[in-house]
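Bug #77: duplicate submission created two jobs. Keeping one. Sequence:
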Amino acid sequence: MTAKPTVPPDTAHWTARLTALAARHSVPGAGLGIWYQGRWIEAAAGLANAGARIEATTDTLWQIGSITKVWTATAAMGLVDEGALTLDRPLVEVMPELRLADEHLTRSVTLRHLLAHTSGIDGDYFPDTGRGDDCLERYAELLADLPACHPLGATMSYCNAGYTLIGRVMERVTGIRWDALMRDRLFRPLGLTHTATLPDDVLRHRAATGHYGDPPQVVAEWSMARSTGPTGLICSTTADVLAFVRLHLDGGSTGDGTRLLSGDSVRAMQTPQVELPGPYPAGRAWGLGWVLGEWDGLATYGHDGSTIGQSAYLRVLPEVDLAICLFANGGNAGALYAELFREIADDLAGVSMPAPLLPAEAPVDVDPADVTGVYERSSTRIEVVERDGGLLLRDRFTGILAGLAERPETEYPLRPLSPGTFVARRPDDGGWMPVAFFTLPDGSRFVHHGGRATPKVS
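Kept job's structure:
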C-alpha cells in the first residue's frame, strides 16, 4: 500500500465542505475518503450515533452496504483464477444440491449470471436464517421456493439473493465460511485493520448506526441478518475501502507486490456484461460486480450501498487516478453525494459529473394504456395508474422488506423522458430517477425501477 501523508494539504478544506454539506442535507454523520494521484484525504463530520452523541471520526466503521458485493465478486474471481470456479459452467456442477425456481434455472445458472445480476432470481429476499456458521447454507436451501422474476439472462435485475448464493458457492468449493474467506483473501493481505463482517468484530471499534427521520432517530435494528453478509454486511472505514480500490487500480496486486487477482480478472470485472434498460445516473452497464459508467468522457466504475438507515457511495475514475467514497447515516444522503462528488471531481481533476436527470422539455407521445397496470414480484408490488391527467407509480414493499424500509410505500408522479422511459422524483432529495417500461421477445412486459425488473401481472 502507498503510505498516506500525515496531514494531506487539503484535508481541512474537504472536512469543512463535508461538514457544511452534511448539515445542509440533514445528514447526522458522514465519512469521506479521496484517493487522487498519490494523495489520501480522509474527513469525518457530525455524529456516528445521534442518540448517544458519539462523534464520527476517520476511524469510525460504517456499513458499506452493497459495496460489499464488489468485495464478494473480487474473492469469487480469485477462485476463478485458481480454477476452483468458472464463469460460464453451471454452478450445479460444483453445488449439486442447488435447487432454484425451476429445472432450467437450476441446471443453467452460472457465476457470470449471478455477478452481473442476470439470473432472474428475485433479488430482495431477506429471511433471517440465524447467526450460526450455516446461515448461508440454510439460505440457499430456501431459494427453491423463490419464484424467478424474469427468464435466465433475459435482462438485468439487481439481485441481492444472487450474491448471497455466490457466498455459499464459495463456501462449498473451499470449505471455508464466507466471513473467514473475506479475512483470509482480502482483509489481511491488504493490511486492513478496520474492516469486519461480524458485529462482534465491529464492536471493537467506534461504529456508526443508522438513523431515520428529521430530527434523526437511531434505527431500531442496527444490522441486517447474517445471511446477507456477501451482499451487504461489510463494515469499514474510508481508508480501508480506498485500499481495496487500490487493488483494482493496481491491476490486482497489493502495494508490496502480492498478487490477489489476475490482470485478466480485474479487466473482466470492468467489462460491460449487460446494459441497463434506462439512463441510470450511477452507470450505463453492469460488469462483474462493478457498475460501469462515464463522467465527462472518462470511464468510471463504482457501486452504491444502502442498509438500515445508512448509505454508501463509491466512484472510481481510473484514467485520472481518482477514487471517492462517502458514507452517511441518515438524512438526504443522495443529495449530499451528488453535490459533494460533483465538487470533488471538478476541483481535483477538472472532470464534470453527469448532469442530473430531468423530465423532457419537449412533449413525448405517451399512451397510458402501454404502461398502466400492476407489476409484482415476491418482495414488491408496483401499481401504475392515471391521476390528475398524469401517471403515478405506487411502489410498495411486501414481506420482510416492508419491516426494514423507512417508507414501506411510496408514490412517485411520472414524467416522460423518452418513449417508454419516464423519470420519477425521489421524495428524499428531490432528484429524478429513471423508470423504464419494456417488453421481452416472449411478449412479457416489465417495469425497470430502482435497478429491478418487475413483471406485469395485470
